[in-house]
Amino acid sequence: MTDIVIPVKKLSKAKQRLSGLLTPTVRAGLVLAMLEDLLAMVSFIDHGQILVVASDDLVFDVARKFGADILREDRPWGYNSAVNAGFAALGDVENVAVFPADIPLARSREISRLIAPSEMGKPLVRLAPSRDKLGTNGLFLSSRNLIRTGFGPDSYTGHCRSASAMGIDTVFLEAPSLAHDIDTPLDLQEFIQHRQPGLTLEFMESIHCAGLAPASEKKAFV
Questions:
Q1: Using alpha carbons only, what angle is made at residue 24 by residues 18 and 26, rounded to the nearest 5 degrees?
Q2: Which of 97, 127, 131, 146 has its CA 20 to 30 A from that of 119?
Q3: 160, 163, 165, 168: CA torsion to nearest 10
Q4: 178, 183, 189, 195: CA torsion to nearest 10
């Protein structure tokens, strides 16, 4: 089975591009809701260890609800640092995957396709891109040391190049449910229009009803 690492940015720093729309407290609540929806989808499929790497007790509370293990970052150094720390904590394992916590449309079927173990130990990289084909919203490695991960701007191309340079077979997974991450107000608006049941949608509808969105932005939640 495949072990899964889910890094979660410090809640007080999360989703800065939504700061004109949502308060820090609401942004933190959004991250927690998205994480819970992702873990709920993972719970429906076969998987190995789930390791949530974060620095907030509220994140760990969500992780424990689904039987995930936790790794506390005492001094967060960034997303790639969290990924590397997660890999190191897992040990010298085969079949490992990384997912961001902000993909609330994720469905178990596409998660399962992404994390399917490599056959006969064959070196393999499997990638699920973001909608703009710049970010990496799902990464599978048949060995944690197969390539050096580099999440961030244009990470999808970077991961492709790293695998190609090593002569490693690469599978590009078209996974619409994994492609939609939430970074901008437009991302959030389009997510709500999907009407996918889950805690994230319930959370966003609840804050809209409570009038927590700025007046100039409320129409985005209609």
A1: 80
A2: 131
A3: -140
A4: 30
- Token pair belonging to 158: 């970077």
User: What does the chain come to in residues?
Assistant: 222
Q: d(Cα 171, Cα 160) in Å, to the nearest integer?
A: 9
| Cα(202)–Cα(214) distance, integer angstroms | 19
Amino acid at 143: S
Spatial separation of the C-alpha atoms in residues 110 and 41, rounded to whole Å = 10
Written as one string, the DSSP assignment of 108-142 is HHHHHHHHPPPGGG--EEEEEE-TTSSSEEEEEEE
Q: How far is CA 117 from the centre of its chain?
A: 19
Give me the tens of pLDDT residue by residue for the chain, a chain 222 residues long: 999 999 999 999 999 999 999 999 999 999 999 999 999 999 999 999 999 999 999 999 999 999 999 999 988 789 999 999 999 999 888 899 999 999 999 999 999 999 999 877 789 999 999 999 999 999 999 998 899 999 988 999 999 999 999 999 899 999 999 999 999 999 999 999 999 999 999 999 998 755 555 433 433 332
Amino acid type, 123:
P
Return the bridge partners of 142, or none.
Answer: none
- Domains of the chain in start order, with CATH, are 3-208 (3.90.550.10)
Contact 135, 127 (CB under 8 A): no
AA identity, residue 50: I
DSSP secondary structure of 49-66: -EEEEES-HHHHHHHHHT
Contact partners, residue 77, CB within 8 Å, separation at least 6: none
